[in-house]
Design brief:
Elements lengths: L4 H24 L2 E7 L18 H8 L2 E7 L5 H10 L3 H4 L27 H7 L3 E7 L23 E5 L14 H30 L6 H20 L5 H4 L2 E3 L2 E5 L3 H18 L5 E6 L20 H23 L6 E7 L8 E2 L2 E2 L17 H4 E7 L8 E8 L3 H8 L16 H4 L10 E6 L2 E7 L9 E8 L22 E11 L18 H16 L31 E2 L12 H8 L3
Parallel strand pairs: 1-7, 1-8, 2-12, 3-4, 3-7
Antiparallel strand pairs: 2-11, 4-5, 5-6, 6-17, 8-11, 9-10, 13-14, 14-15, 15-16
Helix pairs in contact: 6-7, 9-10
Length: 599
Amino acid sequence: MTNRSPLVFTSLVCALLNMCQAHRVHDDKPNIVLIMADDLGIGDLGCYGNNTIRTPHIDRLAREGAQLTQHLSAASLCSPSRSAFLTGRYPIRSGMVSSGNNTRVVKNLAVPAGLPLNETTFAALLKKQGYSTGLIGKWHQGLNCDSRSDHCHHPYNYGFDYYYGMPYTLIDSCWPAPSRSMEIAFESRLWLCIQLVAIAVLTLTFGKLSGWVSVPWLLIFSMILFIFLLGYAWLSSYTSRLYWDCLLMREHEITEQPMKAERAGSIMVKEAISFLERYRKGPFLLFFSFLHVHVPLPTTDDFIGTSKHGLYGDNVEEMDFMVGKILDAIDEFGLRNDTLVYFTSDHGGHLEARRGHAQLGGWNGIYKGGKGMGGWEGGIRVPGIVRWPGKIPAGQFIKEATSLMDILPTLASVSGGSPPQDRIIDGRDLMPLLQGNIRHSEHEFLFHYCSSYLHAVRWIPKDDSGAVWKAHYVTPIFQPPSSGGCYVTSLCQCFGEQVTYHNPPLLFDLSRDPSESTPLTPDTEPLYDVVIKKVATALKEHQETIMPVTYQLAELNQARKWLTPCCGVFPFCLCDKEGELSAPMLRRRHNYNQVTKGQ
């Protein structure tokens, strides 16, 4: 026994050291909460200069963290921008682009297009590092491939452990929606009727073949025809996209079809808080992807009429309130100091979103252009806020060029992992910049695409000149001229007769002309020829790294009716499994006004 005591003691010490080491490694991994707004303009937030829309919770997040003032999306529309955010790669590399002037986003839920399964997302990387991963909110990266329930492009196939949200995106049909209580009740009775007729058909057919009953085949065929005609009539009565694209899912189950859009945001916040509580011991990744502030701007009655900017302003203020609820939950669960929180938008505000004279899209501040414009700054410059108490100094403004693509390598870094080594990753780790270990962005060049077409190139020289050169090779033709937007077509085009090609390219120095108002010339800029040549060389080198891939948003972006998701047995697809919220998530308007009074 005496001889064995040192061995036992040594074993216990080793076990304790291993436990401590494991605990220390776990402590080094922060929880991560990523919050992405939809179509939010950089000029819509108080912390970015807006003094008429109240965003106190996002403004507080900015004060407590680092604010990125040259934060850039890799695309100016939803699907390609989000694919770049998820993978750290330009959409042209993954194929999340189109050719010509085809639809530049995943068109609807009946198309087989989607983020290719061979792409690696930040969720997949963190899952390998022991993270619990969840996505709540908008997806818009595809859903099905071969059948209406194969869910090949479901978030579960990209590293997420939990999903609740809208697999598509908001469209005008989603809100305001008619009351569906009577429709759902009628459909359930109609479906029961069809089932009874089908049972009768099967019974009569079996009886006739067995010689038990004597009924004419005409009667049986007539009953079968009746079933098909009834189903077709029901399907034909639901031509609105409301019934086929405006739906919510929990995991693989459709919970609302069509969804009640005005309550969706509240349910998603409730889901987010539940996720935080469920995985509070960490480490976890929560990607909260807002439906706000995309048209048609579904807003609860508590916020309608509260802002100075109509329905759009109301929707922004409701979104800010929801951000506050998530931040409060992080504090309540004691996660504040161990959680990296990031807030952004997928691209710039939608200038052309209007109803009559009412503006329904965002404001992009001093920057020219907006959503759908791949080159102009207003389409791609977005808010960027990062908070990690004790790790990232609070109250700093970082003017260096950063990108949504930087999130993947940054999360790989803080989680102890590494980005994929078998492909080009266009993002850069932000932590050295955020922590003040380097002065300049690791991006020297950034390439701005409109779908598959290169529109502009940004050059940030690695010196102390402060210059930010930007060369535009293609720009959209505004409709009407000088309007700053494409109000005739609703979105600007990337290619063809509705764009202008520039040779030599238009050149701006954003450090002196952030609004891109006056192109430089050889007469006004001594370095003009040097910059044009340098940018052209970088562009050529970049294009040599682009490998041919299938464009997901071209031929694959055509609807196949058999891929349409259905809550029941097609075409009887209406359902509401959420019911009314048991307790309202949002406080009344006067309480919100008290919080924001004086902001």
